[in-house]
Amino acid sequence: MSIGEKLTEVKKTIPEGVTLVAVSKTKSVSDIKEAFKAGQRIFGENKVQEMTQKRELMPKEIQWHMIGHVQSNKVKYMAEYVSLIHGVDSFKLLKEIDKQAKKHNRIINCLLQIHIAEEDTKFGLSESELNQIIASDDFQELKNIKIEGVMGMATFTDDTAQIRREFKQLKSIYDALENKIANLSTLSMGMSGDYQIAIEEGSTMVRIGSSIFGARNYH
């Protein structure tokens, strides 16, 4: 099956109201163009430099999402164009995004990354760290960011009960946050292996790569 055909098949499994981010990290510009031709407009990358290079070669109406772990010193390279930053896992990073957004006279949409997995390798805020950030005066002063919602990754396991439990936890954190931050719209959870469970548990945005582009190319 071609990339376009795979994309069409994946879209059939995603209900209306759930946004598909096609994870194009490590993929070639020609692969992305094929998905674009098949109607995909939102692509997710995990390296700022790679995303910036691809953006220069692709149609301007594409929305680029930064889905990987972000180092503060890299924010300036994408502040001019990034549509959504998924992995905001510290106040320091939020502050830097705000600062760089201001330079470009933009408001940058962000998702706060919550740690829900049992693995230590995944980044993210605990629920108490999240609450601490949004209750702080410093947070209220950030005028060039908009918190759209939260993002989290479940443990990489075959235990679907555990995955479901972790997604339920993220959904409840999101629901509680709705009372504290106005106009939340995005609960980003679910990837190629577990997005069906994520959607059942309330996800509004899924990040799918291998089901569309095939296995990842490791450099």
Question: What keyword list fits this structure?
Answer:
219 residues, alpha/beta, globular, 8-stranded parallel barrel
Please give a quick description of this structure.
With 219 residues, the chain is an alpha/beta fold. 38% of the residues lie in helices and 19% in strands. The chain has an eight-stranded parallel beta barrel.
Helix content: 25-40%
Helix and strand composition category: alpha/beta
Strand order of the largest sheet: 1-2-3-4-5-6-7-8
Mean of all residue-level pLDDT scores? 95
How large is the count of helical segments? Answer: 9
The quaternary structure here is: single chain
Strand percentage, roughly?
Answer: 15-25%
Poorly predicted spans: none
Q: Which shape, going by the Cα principal axes?
A: globular
Count all strands and give the number.
Answer: 8
Instruction: Give helix and strand order, one letter per element, not per position.
Output: HEHEHEEHEHHEHEHEH
Distance between the termini: 24 Å
**What Rg do the Cα atoms give?**
17 Å
